[in-house]
Amino acid sequence: MQRPKRWSISPPDERASELAARLKTSPLLAQILLNRGISEQQDCMDFLRPSPKGLADPALMPNLKVAAERIAKAIRDKEKVVVYGDYDVDGITATAILWHAIRHLGGEVDYYIPHRIDEGYGLNAEALAQICDVGAKVIVTVDCGITAVEQAKVACDRGVDLIVTDHHEWHVEEIEGERRPIFPECLTIVHPRLPGSAYPNPHICGAGVAFKLAWGIGLAVCGAEKVDATFREYLVEATALAALGTIADVVPLVGENRILAHWGLGGLKNSKLHGIQALIASANLTGQQLDSYHVGFLLAPRLNACGRMGHAREAVEMLTKADAGRAGEIAIYLETKNRERQGMERKILEQALEQVTLNNFDHEDCRAIVLGGEGWHAGVIGIVASRIVDRTHRPTIMIATTNGHGQGSGRSIPGFNLARALEACGTHLDAFGGHEMAAGLKIQTAKIAEFREAFCKHASDVMSAEMMIPELRLECLAELNLLTEALVKDLKRLGPFGHGNRKPLLCCRGLTIAGPPRRVGKTGDHLQLYVKQAQASMKCIAFNYGNMIDQLRTGTVVDLAIEPQLNEYMGRTSVELEVKDLQFA
User: Fold this and answer.
1) What CATH number is given to the structural domain containing 422?
2) Which H or E run includes 94?
3) Total domain count for the chain?
4) Which residues does residue 403 pair with via DSSP β-bridges, in sequence order?
5) What is the Cα–Cα distance from 533 to 511, expressed in whole angstroms?
6) pTM for this predicted structure
7) Which of 41, 123, 460, 489 sits a CA distance of 20 to 30 A from 330?
8) Is residue 310 classed exposed, middle or buried when 0-12, 13-18 and 19+ CB atoms within 10 A define those classes?
């Protein structure tokens, strides 16, 4: 059964018809562009046709030029550079982007990926010491490092240049009522949101930062305003890796992020990287034109499974050093780990939901959830936290405990900043970090109860009652006869879709159910129905609405929040409606 949702329908914009005429498109598409705050003709055209020319100058990112010039010097002087990555898709792809860039420019480069369970997120002091001891002259972090204040001193003490590139929140301290950032001691920090930053894309992910740094290194090595043709070709190829990281890390797909995702998705199908082709083959997607769904739900989980259930270095090897044969072997291994992860996830989710019910965490007075379990797999709890959020619409922290220590992972809802919430409860934690929608922590088992109390109190203090009801944002009212094949193709031009650029949802009011609804799916969880309005009729599929069949009969009048799709069957294409919510008229 779906949770009740709060419908928010954008009002009609009187400019839509005129804008549609200028763009030579439908008024409905023009309305959606206006809903997204895009009203100027050129801006609309840029949105509908994303161009690499819209990418920001790498030099605008704070300290990127300093970092690029130091790495360029290391390349010229044959100094060893080590890229210190992270074990999620963003960190894996960011590592691969820089590794390939430095190798392409003739540098000596290696990488290090921490073990999720044994080392946890971020810089590890012991690992840094080992990297320094084996001859690294420059260490570049990707997708981590901004909170590694103590650990960074290891490189500094050994005279090794540490460059931190990250996009996560940094720690702050309050001195005499003034909040001040705490940054690690290092050669420089490349981060889009540093104080005083003029960088136009504050929501770029770790792979995006790595892509921009790779571009900057190319400029520094070439010593010109533009990179040479061969390195430009590499950067085009690297957009495929950047797209994987951008979509998987659920950053807003607008502006520069959307450009990287658009061009990277286009390049995935024909990528020259053996690892990308092996990954695509393992998901049975060879030859297909890929979109954000394929990345977010089919490719990214395979890459993530390696870090969750084993060690992410195999995934990085697949995207860097591996030849075709080895890449295929690793892809099969990732598939095995992904299936293992799915089984573990189902088991932990069942236990977590039992805790939610037993402790009344889904009561309307409870605005956040903190769950803990001895022996839970720390590599899977983040996904389970997402599942709990989907079911309860509450910020959720999952903590895997063992031997008196806990490792936690959290997911949030729109409007609740998880990183700031953990900061507010930081006295109960050993370590924490992340961003608005996802974060991680370390805690002593004995402190979980007091942390839960503090976290839930913070949620109660900052969350309104309205935030507890999931909002469904609908673009406009639409008549059934307007939902044509041409319109659906038009709507696809708004992609790639994801966080910050949602798939268009339309509101159809006063539809009459034509004929008895039918339960479908292996267990009858879904509902198939036909609706009509005036002379138009259309087939609908409503996932997870199967138990509403007794409330819906021929002649029942309903309002639907729908996503129009194209259905191809026996050589015939027709429009079908995917029901995202249903209300009685």
Assistant:
1) 3.10.310.30
2) helix 89-104
3) 3
4) none
5) 5
6) 0.90
7) 123
8) buried
